[in-house]
Amino acid sequence: MARLFGFIGNRADLGARVLELEREPLKVVVRGTPLGWGIGFYQSGEVLLRRRPIDDRSELDPASLAADVRSDVLVGHVRKATVGARRTENTHPFRYRQWLFANTGTIQGFAELHERLSGSLPEFLRRDVRGETDSELLFHLFLSFLHDAGQLAETMVEPAATRAALRSTLALIDRLCAEEGQPPSPLNILVTDGEHMVAAHRTETMAYRFFEGRADLERMLGDDARWRMRLPDTASCHFSLLASDFDKPPRGWVEVPRDSFVTLTRTAPPAVEAI
Fold it and tell me: Which domain does 87 fall in, by range?
């Protein structure tokens, strides 16, 4: 079983506590072959990655993987390898400049489509592909559409431009799959530039939680009086947590309709629209 997850908010010191609060629904029980995992996050102006391609534990807990992380934006992934060996280069999330990307699901007919997809990339992006996975190539296709729109070199990209690049990426994948007699590819995608986050939902259950106000923050802080003293204005704290590949939506979460984008920012509730 795989898991895609991420959060964005406006308090770097609370990011890990968001995962802790939803520890149980985010856990992944390993059945059979060991899984791998990775997290990418923004800290002190840097984009950081932690990736472990093979983890022998019988249960992977995103809250423990990021327990010491101080960040207000994080993308995480638990990987059940389907394309590509279990190596660091094939482990999500993938990074390019300020962008982080992870997904679950597989491009249908990827073996037949690999050369066509790779050949559609600008040379500078093709050279940047390090591993063997359909996921990393999918990421670079997204980057190529940002490049075509003149957005790849920008440090501040509007969420609408991110959605447009994702929409074009999925349309290209679907068209090429159809030409090979394949159905649309079942994919869940999460991408961020550190200022906003966009998810595309096309396969296993995706859902989100939005935290705001005193009640949510008090649940997050528990009985820790020191934390409460440091957060006098709980009404100003906001966090969005999104994850996918559940059997069913966790209690208290909002399920995302199939074939939808979810846009998450630091202060507003998640916004859902059709792909």
Answer: 3-104+187-274
Task: Give how far Cα 63 sits from Cα of 27, 157, 231, Å.
Answer: 8, 29, 22
pLDDT score, position 80: 83
- Burial of 229 from C-beta contacts in 10 A (0-12 / 13-18 / 19+): exposed
Cβ(34)–Cβ(54) below 8 Å:
yes
Task: Please give the backbone phi and psi of residue 140, each rounded to the nearest 5 degrees, phi first.
Answer: -70, -25
CATH number of the domain where residue 196 is located = 3.60.20.10
In the chain, at which residue ranges do the beta strands (DSSP E only) sit? 3-9, 28-29, 35-43, 46-55, 59-60, 73-79, 94-96, 99-105, 187-192, 197-201, 205-212, 238-246, 254-255, 260-264, 271-274
Contacts of 99 (CB under 8 A, 6+ apart): 139, 143, 191, 192, 193
The pLDDT, as a whole number, for residue 221 is 72
Q: 159-179 and 134-148 are packed helices; what angle lies between their axes, rounded to 10 degrees?
A: 120
Which pLDDT score is estimated for 232?
52
Burial of 186 (0-12, 13-18, 19+ CB in 10 A): middle
Integer Cα distance of 212 and 198 in angstroms: 20
pLDDT of 261-274, one tens digit each?
A: 999 999 899 999 99
* 182 domain-assigned: no
Structure tokens at 120: 């559609």
Residue 143 lies in a domain: no
Tell me, what's the pLDDT at 269? 95
Neighbouring C-alpha atoms within 13 Å toward the C-beta of 267: 2
225 belongs to a structural domain: yes
Considering its fold, how many domains does the chain have in total? Answer: 1
pLDDT lower than 50: segments of the chain: none
Q: Is residue 214 part of a domain?
A: yes
